[in-house]
Automatic annotation (TrEMBL):
Protein name as annotated: AMP-dependent synthetase/ligase domain-containing protein
Entry-linked SUPFAM superfamilies: Acetyl-CoA synthetase-like
Record field: transmembrane: none
InterPro entries: AA_adenyl_dom, AMP-bd_C_sf, AMP-binding_CS, AMP-dep_synth/lig_dom
Superkingdom of origin organism: Bacteria
Taxonomy of the source species: Bacteria, Bacillati, Actinomycetota, Actinomycetes, Streptosporangiales
Domain AMP-dependent synthetase/ligase: 50-406
Pfam families for this protein: AMP-binding (PF00501)
CDD domains, alphabetized: A_NRPS
Amino acid sequence: MTILDGLLEQADLPELDISGEEVEYARKFAMSRVHEVDLSAAVVTWVERIAAGGDRPAVRDETRALGYAELAAEARRIAALLEREGVRPGMVVAVGGVRSVTVIAAFLALELIGGVYVPADANWPAKRVSDVLEQAGAVLLFNTDPGETTPALAEGAAAAGVRVVRAREAADCPLWEGEARLESLDQPRYMLFTSGSTGRPKGAVVEHQGMVNHLYAKIVDLGMTDRDVVAQTAPLGFDISIWQMLCPLLNGGQVHVVSDEVSYDSVAFAEVIDSQEITVVELVPTMVRLLLDDLAAHGGARLAGLRWMLATGEELPTEVARRWLLEMPQAGLVNAYGPTECSDDVTHHIVTLGDLELLRLPIGTPVINTDLYVLRKDDDGRWHACEPGETGELFVGGHGVGRGYLGDHERTRDAFFRSPFGPSLTSRLYRTGDAVKVLPQGALQYLGRVDRQVKVAGVRMELGEIEAVLQRHPSVGAVAVVLHDFGTGG
């Protein structure tokens, strides 16, 4: 069975309940950004093109480093092994193990043979591994670790009835021959499992065009060149890991895979940033705060060569941004926002000192080839367009919008719609569930989840906005605001 068997067709997606008049109104206030990029090649094709122009360093971890030609050759050997083991185009292959150069080579191998990548993190418990393998319909687990298979991976694969193939078996394989199998730009490329409100993870499927567009979005907005070195720090189950592994490989840059042991130790991580001349790092804001704290306490590394710090995955507090801008002026700070279902980030915002006067930092404007709409659902049950300054729910259109949740048609229909806004890059629209508003300067501001919007005496209020005000007091470490209805009895 291929992955397409578990996905809805475009025609099966619901229509958004919005009038023609409101569609025109929403178009007027839409945030769109079109940028021409070449989406017609797989990443592995770019790796081989760069290698043909003269080998150069491509990827490295704590145990080894590969140039572009070596990386391409390893990917082709793995592709030959996977095809020998019965993997065919459209089939899902789980890639399990610790983060390493081999994981990157395995991803490129799946591009070659047209397979679909799903990660199985070595740190997951066995039950999580088995759940992911079963829901993904993985035909095998490709274990990238050089030693024995991690017990949780082995146990999870056995419980799911999925056989394990070891990376070391590819050492003697001939190089797979032929061009990367890319039949269409909407070909499924990878699947990541997000946590659902029911506790059952959802397998979000991302297309080739969405993935590559997001890689180019980082290159365009960060001005990345062949001199950049990106730190690969994110666990394999997080969408951040995809661009960290692949983005530099489109233009001759390097990927440095940082081990968990180092990435969770701020002082050691800072030393690696300096010693390995890393120029781009993306962390959750909590880790950015810890990095600043530890550098202030222990000194040493100063991140002199760092060009960009991206903060994502949780709201970036104004206080953390202020510290970064004052203590690390050599490195720009980007507030990035985006859901896994839309190929990762859909907005970027370069934080300035002027932003620090706001209660909450902007999440920015659309990345390339992305359309953003702010809509609200009123008491009539229909969607209406929001003007700048009004609070509504964010909807995303464009190249990045994925195919939905594998084998979960009900939840797909809850979040994905046929776009009513005319011809677009995918004709799909994703409902994020996030409350936002457009600021006067034209950037979006994130206000929390829409289910935290309340009405008091008929007035809509955002609990997250109240929390942001209270959080600014220097004596407040953490705050949570909830609404209680005490009735009318006084």
